[in-house]
């Protein structure tokens, strides 16, 4: 997943659609109509294989709920004899198909009587639409438009074997071109930096099974904001040898410390943290999930991607901050954590350059918009 860029044809053999470009819509989206090669054949064949799904970054099997929505979209396309069309900001469903499907999915959502089912349906639909709308347009490895693929520029680097990152990603950030969490598995590989999509049962099950095996003392959530409810610093975690603290067993060669990075907007991160704590209470009997606050500064991505305030940072910068702070501790200074932080920072600069170049070609501004700086966390 980390090396060569994907070509336009680097997609599942079961791809049933050909794309017709309808012109540029803004700087980050294009408008596509997906028309079936053979309506009769398309109504019988599947859409997304597990191989295609994993090429986008996940390690799970293709989620059942996402597969159901993809199949429903396909059946609806056959029924309406109308191509699936994506376009505009966010790549939303467009045209007559989009209008009909919007009414249909809202009715399905309202008919669900359980909040958890509503939430999972929302997440699955977000992922299904993003998968179909990105086929043949985005590189499956770096999530950039094919002509902007940065895969050949990113240098892989081994992460210290005692650390594993979990990118707990909101579905609205999945396949976003300016997402920075994807850089971690591009650099470190999917076994060292693993994607887990918020609300996708298969992903969350894999993550929590690993946490159960590791034990509560080996799991930390990275919430890099000084004004949040987080109380632990890196020095608190690794400088204290008490058994109650995460990181106290770093001398044990058989132990891996799992870091959860919340990969979503600051508005969404509060709900993501609450879900983690609720699940921690079910697993361990208490919702006191250890969290770490970093002393990190503004990310380079602030130049392109607005944040609520300058003390907030992106996911990749949070990982860089963690590795950098850990490398300063005497007991961890020999594990090359500073070099691993540098590898992510280099990838972040490459991503910034790719996005900046695209915006310049599109005639879009490359300066950060002024945002309200009220603390929203």
From TrEMBL:
One of its GO terms (molecular function) is tRNA-uridine aminocarboxypropyltransferase activity. InterPro entries: DTW (IPR005636), DTWD2/TAPT (IPR039262). Keywords: S-adenosyl-L-methionine, Transferase, tRNA processing. It comes from the Eukaryota. Signal peptide: none annotated. One of its GO terms (biological process) is tRNA processing. Residues 135-364 form the DTW domain. The keyword tRNA processing applies. It is an enzyme of class 2 (transferase). Its EC number is 2.5.1.25. It catalyses: a uridine in tRNA + S-adenosyl-L-methionine = a 3-[(3S)-3-amino-3-carboxypropyl]uridine in tRNA + S-methyl-5'-thioadenosine + H(+). PANTHER family: TRNA-URIDINE AMINOCARBOXYPROPYLTRANSFERASE, TRNA-URIDINE AMINOCARBOXYPROPYLTRANSFERASE 2. This is tRNA-uridine aminocarboxypropyltransferase. It comes from Arabis alpina (Alpine rock-cress).
């Amino acid at each position: 997943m980390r090396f060569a860029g994907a070509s336009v044809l680097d997609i599942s053999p079961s791809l049933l659609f050909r794309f017709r470009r309808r012109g540029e819509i803004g700087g980050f989206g294009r408008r596509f109509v997906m028309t079936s090669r053979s309506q009769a054949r398309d109504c019988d064949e599947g859409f997304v294989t597990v191989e295609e799904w994993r090429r986008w970054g996940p390690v799970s099997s293709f989620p059942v709920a996402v597969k159901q929505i993809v199949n429903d979209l396909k059946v609806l396309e056959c029924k309406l004899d109308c191509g699936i069309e994506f376009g505009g900001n966010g790549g939303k469903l467009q045209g007559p198909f989009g209008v009909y499907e919007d009414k249909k999915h809202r009715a399905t959502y309202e008919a669900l009587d359980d909040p958890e089912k509503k939430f999972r349906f929302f997440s699955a639909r977000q992922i299904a639409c993003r998968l179909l709308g990105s086929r043949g347009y985005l590189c499956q490895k770096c999530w950039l438009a094919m002509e902007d693929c940065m895969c050949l520029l990113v240098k892989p680097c081994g992460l210290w074997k005692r650390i594993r990152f979990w990118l707990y990603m909101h579905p609205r950030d999945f396949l976003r071109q300016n997402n920075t969490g994807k850089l971690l598995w591009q650099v470190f590989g999917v076994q060292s930096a693993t994607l887990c999509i918020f609300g996708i049962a298969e992903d969350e099950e894999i993550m929590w099974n690993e946490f159960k095996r590791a034990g509560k003392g080996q799991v930390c959530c990275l919430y890099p904001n000084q004004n949040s409810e987080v109380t632990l610093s890196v020095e608190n975690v690794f400088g204290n040898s008490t058994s109650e603290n995460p990181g106290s067993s770093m001398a044990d060669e058989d132990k891996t410390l799992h870091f959860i990075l919340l990969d979503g907007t600051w508005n969404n991160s509060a709900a993501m943290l609450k879900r983690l704590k609720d699940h921690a209470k079910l697993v361990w009997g208490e919702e006191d999930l250890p969290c770490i606050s970093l002393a990190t500064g503004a990310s380079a991505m602030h130049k392109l991607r607005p944040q609520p305030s300058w003390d907030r940072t992106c996911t990749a910068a949070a990982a860089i901050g963690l590795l950098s702070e850990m490398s300063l501790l005497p007991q961890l200074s020999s594990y090359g954590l500073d070099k691993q932080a540098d590898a992510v920072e280099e990838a972040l600069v490459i991503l910034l350059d790719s996005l900046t170049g695209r915006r310049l070609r599109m005639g879009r501004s490359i300066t950060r918009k002024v945002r309200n700086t009220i603390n929203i966390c």
